[in-house]
Amino acid sequence: MGVVVALDESRKPEASVKPLVELTYSDMQQVNALILSKTGSDVEMIPEVAKHLIDSGGKRLRPMLTLAAARMCGYEGDHHVTLSASVEFMHTATLLHDDVVDESDMRRGKQAARMVWGNQASVLVGDFLLGQAFRMMVDAQSMDALEVLSTASTIIAEGEVMQLSAAQSMETTEDDYLAIIRGKTAALFSAACEVGPILAGSQKPIRDAFRSFGMNLGLAFQLIDDALDYGGSQTDLGKNVGDDFFEGKITLPVLLAYRRGNDAEREFWRSAMEADSSDAEALERALALLNKHGAIGDTVARARHYGEIARDALAPLPEDEFKCALLDVVEFCVSRVS
Q: What dihedral angle (degrees, nearest 10) is formed by the CA atoms of 173, 174, 175, 179?
């Protein structure tokens, strides 16, 4: 591909999720065992489809956030394991559903489940995982945690519907886009973080701090994902570079390039995104326009902005190894293309 979107390598920090992985390792062993047990079913296809996605990788960042938040707040029970598995099941279910809606061929570098078992199986197994997630929420015996996670489930669905409504519409505003990613991505990050202090019986200011941390981390995470679709690699994404473009998905890099372009450039975006006339040549031009108008760099800058808000949310809390690990996660998320 002839056009390469320039990324600022000089700003790339040595950030890693390794400290979080190490701190939550023992708990995550229990989470993984619980996940495997809850994918079991007498219906043979259910564990096959679920394990196809669960075993395909992914950092399991969201359940680790729940574990770390609970431990940071002094929780000493074991319901954080139950809720962490519930969070991961919610996430996995949304991936199965998303791939059907988006007609995606790949997920985490492998064939999407819909390509192996079909759309119907993917949707129904996603429903099964959501059901199991809610059963585990009940098992955790916390009405507050149940309320937070069930509300997040509703908001995620609303975000996905909003994205569907905005698909292929260049009239989408940046505010519309942010509302979409708050729902479809950031809401689960926020809930995953908030249920930790809920289990620990923390006061409202602590809950609020973790909720804000998760929400802004989720916004930063999704902004970087959208930048990676045009400025990353298949290894970074676990899917094909340019998938968002070919699916007519309106993301912030596209919105910035569209609004900053001249009449001819805006007509190109309308044709490519709204008229479903995208091809490899169109992607080449799209990358050139994104580069011309600094759309990728500015998307990353916005991600860094939300990352700073996430960091500030935890700033008043006592320093410990869990807090340091969570702050490292923020930097890791925003440094993937910066």
A: 110
Helix axes 61-72, 79-102, angle to 10 degrees: 150
CA 54 – CA 36 distance, rounded (Å): 9
pLDDT tens digits, residue range 306-319? 999 999 999 999 99
Nearest to 298 by CA among 206, 231, 214: 231
126, with CB counted inside 10 A (0-12, 13-18, 19+), is buried
Tokens 């970074």 belong to: 236
Judged by DSSP in three states, 315 sits in: coil
Going by C-alpha positions, the residue among 131, 128, 34 that lies closest to residue 78 is 34
Class of domain 17-332: mainly alpha
Q: What is the pLDDT of residue 11?
A: 38
Residue 212 contacts by C-beta under 8 Å, 6 or more apart in sequence?
Answer: 190, 309, 310, 313
Cα separation, 40 vs 49, in Å, equals: 11
Query: At residue 126, does pLDDT exceed 50?
Result: yes
Q: Could you say which DSSP state residue 107 is in? A: E
